[in-house]
Amino acid sequence: MTKDVIALTPKMPDPWAVLAGLLSGGPDKLVGTRGEGAVIQLCDAQGRPLVSVEAPLLVSVEGEAERLLGTTAPPVPYWWTEARATTGVAEAEQLAGTFAARLATLVGGSAWPPDAVGSIAVVKTDGVSVAPEPAADRPAIDVLTGKVAVVIQDRPVVAMTAWLSDAFRAAAEAGLGLQIVSPAGTTLSPAVRDALGGRPSRWIVQDERDGYYDGLTGAVLRWQDGAFGPVLSPDATEDDPRTPVAAAYQEVHDTGDRQLGLTFRMVHPADERLVLGGGLETVWRELTGEPPAGWGTSEPANLPWSLRRLTDVAYERAPEPTWLVVVGNRARPGIATVRITRTKAGVEEEVTLAFGYGTGPGEEPPLDALPAAAEALATRHHLQSMLVQLRKARRDVAVPPRFEGPGVPLAFVLGAEEVRAMPGDRARRTPLAEQPVPLGPKTRQALYYPLPGDPSDLSGWQDFERLVRHLKGA
Questions:
Q1: H-only helix segments in 174-216
Q2: By the 8 A CB rule, do 321 and 307 touch?
Q3: Cα separation of 194 and 337, whole Å?
Q4: pLDDT tens column, 342-357
């Protein structure tokens, strides 16, 4: 597995400390840069990278090291410095570990993972070289074929780091799928799950019994024709191409934990005074009593929550879209991804949000607060639509490589403009037993549709399908 080694330090590593770390391979090792100096690399004699070091990141959000690494970091704010060793080169892993150990020794703090950090002595790398271009061209990509870019991640949580975000961009620009390979026991950040999209992009989990399988579907996989693809069952036919499901994926552990998930879209009129993120903050406050803890353009989320700063970043990137991750505090685990896009209709915000709940006191999902949250979105934040679901899933909102089951829809909300655009009273009269609840003033009403399905089964999806067909006039 590729080794990512991270130094967590209370002070910013100064240039001399970084230089001392980079000399872990001896003074004769070549040093190169990428990304306009944002990435520094230790290279072999041919100039190919052995270790890539990203610029230190200031983290001002509590709990991110615990969430993503399972380790304790210095008090916020602290500095997060990542070094990524090139795949399949043992000396490169030693170099990365020595780099992090030297940094922690000189600046203070700690390094992760502890077993990857050894001596601070010079690592012998005479004669060591790495794979030729183009696989070595992107520090995050370990294998490159004509179909996919493969990234190997040996971390407790596969997160949307700057490395992985760079790999997503590179794969998309080349028209390739992205396949992430991780060991058994690893979980996936919801931010990465939502970005994987369709095939051939996959999350591939190593498994003792079945070799490899898709962590999101359970399909047993093999490397074939330049990509990981599903294995066909012996009794598969052209009309029924059955794929065996990994045994590990089917090992369901119902702990009683649940997640409340909301997916909503807002379309704002384009205005220079527009402040973004307010709808997400409103929902977060209604459901938890507090605003989000932090946000960022990658994980770890490193910036304290700020509507103004978030808006400034989106404006600076316009007309290109902006992708953000937003996190809550440790008392109420929550994570959201936000995509901000400039369109002909205005400025669109698409939000996917999940909160985790356990089985102890105070762990009931606040279902009674949903109508108020929906009304605030509809009346103050130009809500277009929202779907609310409840599902059996982990409290920490991480995605495990096993079956968790779909959510059950609890409510659907239609924004005021969408209600107004429907002919007659179609939006107000539905085939459901329970009629919609008006939200907002009579002159500009949105509608909240409670879905009467039992959260313990999947009947809510039947109600939701009937509702959508009715609203579409089918």
A1: 190-196
A2: no
A3: 8
A4: 999 999 999 999 999 9
Burial zone of 343 (CB within 10 Å; 0-12 exposed, 13-18 middle, 19+ buried) = exposed
**Tens digits of per-residue pLDDT, 210-236?**
999 999 999 999 999 999 999 987 776
How many angstroms separate the CA atoms of 23 and 136, rounded? 21
Helix, strand, coil share (%) of the chain residues, nearest 5: 25, 30, 45
Q: What is the pLDDT of residues 311-342, one digit of tens each?
A: 999 999 999 999 999 999 989 999 999 999 99
Query: The tokens of 76 are what?
Result: 């916020």
pLDDT at 124 over 50: no
Per-residue DSSP letters for 213-259? EETTT-BEEEEETTEEEEPPPTT--SS-----B-TGGG-----S-EE
**What span, in angstroms and rounded, lies between the C-alpha atoms of 149 and 170?**
9
Cβ neighbours for 289, distance < 8 A, ≥ 6 positions apart: none
- Burial degree of 461 (CB within 10 A; 0-12, 13-18, 19+): middle
Beta bridge partners of 319: none
Amino acid at 432: L
Predicted confidence band of residue 276 (pLDDT cuts 50, 70, 90): very high
If one counts every other C-beta atom within 10 angstroms of the C-beta of residue 147, the result is: 16
- The one-letter code for the residue type at 168 is F
C-alpha–C-alpha distance, residues 101 and 277, integer Å: 39
Rounded Cα gap, residues 328 and 61, in angstroms: 9
Note the pTM of the prediction, 2 decimals: 0.90
Q: What is the mean pLDDT of residues 95-121?
A: 76
Which structure tokens are listed for 266?
């807002």
